[in-house]
Amino acid sequence: MTLMSEQIPDSGRYLYKTRGGFIRTRPASVIICLLFLSLFCGFCSASEPTIVITGYQVQPEVIMPGGSALITATVTNTAKAASMTTKSGTDPAESVTETKEINAYIDDVELFGNGLEVISGDYRRVGEVGPGQSIPLTFLVKAPQKTGIYFPELHIATQGGRSLKYPIPVNINDDRLVQKNPAIIVLKNIPDHVIPGDEMTGTLVLKNTGETAASEVILNVSSESREVSFTSPGSIHIGRLGPGDEVPVDFSILTSREVTEGIHPVQCHIRFNTASGRIIEQNEEIPVRVTGEHELSISSVSTDPGRVTEGNQFTLIVRIENTGTGDADGVRARIDTKLNGTKEAFVGKIEPDNDAPAVFYLQHAPAGDIPVPISIYTRNSTDVLKDTIEITVSKKSDIPVLPVLGIIILLGGGVFLWKRKRNTE
User: Fold this and answer.
1) Of 63, 114, 333, 400, whose Cβ has the fewest other Cβ atoms within 10 Å?
2) Residue 249 belongs to domain spanning
3) pTM given for the model
4) What is the per-residue pLDDT across 45-69, written as a single tens digit (0 to 9) for each?
């Protein structure tokens, strides 16, 4: 109803004109009403509860035709607490401030598919949402067979007849909304293996095979083994890699002599930003293959008996030592000599820092210093150790040993008896 005031000059009163006529009133009553309204408006300050959609999520982000997905919307009450000040008298000190929560009451929530089939998620009488609070609402939908971008609409009705409508874009196997991201691959140029105690150097090539640039590219390299250490800088800032760009990163890895044989992976962690600001992290490995290598040498040469006499039989013992870092399998030795006897000896497996004998049975050696060439072989190996050892053979005596020995014994016995008889006289 619209009121229009019109004053009658001779009456001193106000007539409020309405569609049906005039209402007569007194000026004092009008003033009192206006003062009351102004005081009430001045003492009560409150914000209206407002329901908004602060976020949504579609899982999966891209739905296959005929597939199902979950749509989750976050509903938030943006209102704050209301403040109201009341007075019990004319003194300002007698005023009282009261703070009240402004809750939003949600009646019904419904999702209209607009091309999608809504399977479940129709909410009735949801209830109150406090100031600044949020509640998630989840809906199960089924995609149509036709690809494209669909916009199901979320309807939220609150108490008082107010409502909210919010469209949510859903991708049904359509690549128009799929963001193009960078894709970094790592090419590894590394040696086939490394020997324990040695250093291995190689190169990592980071290449962006995606359709957009990668920014703030950082490479972190670390090893979990104490015997395999990364001697190059562990953190490398690469910066920006455009589509098709690549950058080489040289590295050096030091191994301990005590490291076990096998694969020792070195971890590579790559972190970069996409054009939208999303951070992507990926992990790579550098497979450090540790393979020990044997190193054979002759540690000692001996004979049995220790003094070899011309024409007699004897045993030649050659001790072969492995000073390397890997096992020497299938070790065998061969001598090249005109002496009669065995010319080849099988030794077998020799572990690192160990030795083993190669035994040869020989005979009819001539007197003198005899050089004996020797070759040492291993299984599945083309390397050959060649060396020359020397045997000293004593000349055989021309005097018969047994007769001479008998004469010496007789002479010794005679001398002993003569001395004893002399002492008794």
Assistant:
1) 400
2) 184-290
3) 0.46
4) 445 567 788 889 999 888 999 999 9
